[in-house]
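Support case: user asked for a sample of complex input and structure output to validate their parser. Sending the pair below.
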Amino acid sequence: MYRYVVRRLLQMVLTFFGATFVVYALMFANQDDPLQALAGERPVTPAVRQVLTERYHLDEPFLVQYGYYMKGMFTGDFGTSLTGRKITDMMAQAWPVTIRLALLAIVFAALIGVIAGVIAGIRRAGVFDNTTLVLTLVVIAIPVIVLGPVLQFGLGIELKWFPVTAGATPTFYALLLPAFVLGALSLAVTMRLTRTSVAENLRADYVRTAKAKGLKPRRVVGIHVLRNSLIPVVTSLGIDIGNLMGGAIITEGIFNIPGVGFNLFRGIRTEDGPLVVGFVSVLVIIYLVCSLLVDLLYAVLDPRIRYE
Amino acid sequence: MSDMGSVVAAETLPGTTAPPAGPEERAEKPRSLTADALRDLRRSAIFWTACVLGVLVIVMAAFPQWFTSADPRSCSLSRQFDGPSGSAFFGFDFQGCDVYARTVYGARASVLVGTFGVALAAILALLIGMPAGFFGGWIDALLSRVTDIVLGVPYLLAGIVLAKRLSSGREDPGIWAVVLVLGLLGWTTAARVIRSSVIGAKEQDYVAAARMLGASNWRIMWRHILPNALAPTVVVLTIALGAFIATEATLSFLGIGLRPPAISWGIDIASAQGHVREAAVPMLAPASFLVVTVLAFIMLGDAIRDAFDPRLR
């Protein structure tokens, strides 16, 4: 176990530097003209250009720039965005919103997905099972760029059940619809996974033993089967937490929530390198930590799994 | 004597029970796994629905003029938000363009980008998954780490950064920037599937037989292992085709995939979304075509997998 953790941590460091370097290179290597992108249509005077070039180390070799950046990041300094705001401040504003949104989406996915999956798994090949199977397939096929605007139009504008946009300080209620849109895909995947896993476990020997002992069906399913069936589901949900935060770009854009995705997308459009690399680095770290935790949790939940 | 002993030993092994040789079993011709799977596919309603939809979309992409006689680029503000009429089934959008014609012509971008993207991803997956599974050792370790790193980056995020990078500074980047993004980021799952089926196939007797006959590594890989590792890969790539079409629309929606004057469902959804209070159909039409197309390919992959993988039944 100990050796496994060390190996995984080393692998994480490798992935982290690999991923951040690629993003850094994509944002900064031979880019057109960030200063002009910053100024928009207005011309940039040579004096201003020189000051900004020196401030952002734009005249130094590429690897040196990356070194500067990493040095700053490990001392908690993500630098300033090209708009002049400190990126740490922007993160402090953006992260809480996105984390709330992503957690709410995961709760949606876990709650509805597991309950529907268990019912479908028990009544395999029944009406409920077949309906949800088709339904989840449809949900998997609907991209967020369709689901978001359509639900916003149907439930927000036409029926007026939910607020159309969430805004800077969204209430819990305003976040419900965006969270559902964000979590719909994980919900469908969770449901399908739970269904397969429950149906498989219902045929296991220990279930027959439990039934033969005379346990109530409710206890057999709720305790014995569920505990074993949820192991793959936990894995998938854990990986999804990392994915959801990155995937929030479109949802946050559609519902006008100024979270991480919103900032990130604006940064990419205006070629705001420091902002993009900063946010992406944190996202990658979260993603990596999540997948490590999931793998470790796996061993805790399932004693049959041993890491060398 | 020794023959008898080995037969008895084989019979006492777990899982090698002799097949029941009843008369009713003999009457039916024995079928191979593939024939079984194909028979299942022919009976599957989902498979046929998906096939029909898929073919329809491909025909629409190849010959859009068969479906509409209107020009998707001839727009006139005087027709803004006009309702449906004889040839314009879905009415007109904010710019006064024929929504039905634009939706029909939008299929071409999706199908082209999806197909080329999948082709590129398949080539990369083959080049990385095949040697990783076949040679093992340090080659496998290296290639698997590369796969892990690409898989370790959030997909959409990387796609947006890469698409922006590839298309910046050009008026019309065309479809190749998007194809490159999809191919460069989308090969990982297929590579893992190929790797594991190659690992499963290379220990088989026919590989050992080919090796003893003096076949080179190259020949064993392409002529013997690849055909037997193909089925799961085809499933993954079919589903990927649906996913790639969705990703193309997403990137175009964000303004970093295809750009106008290109016609794409993603672009149309994005531009109609701002005017959804005035008219919803210009958004709903491309949106539903997009969903049906993605659904068709995902259902196709799903049906093939169900047929070829009896464990899931």
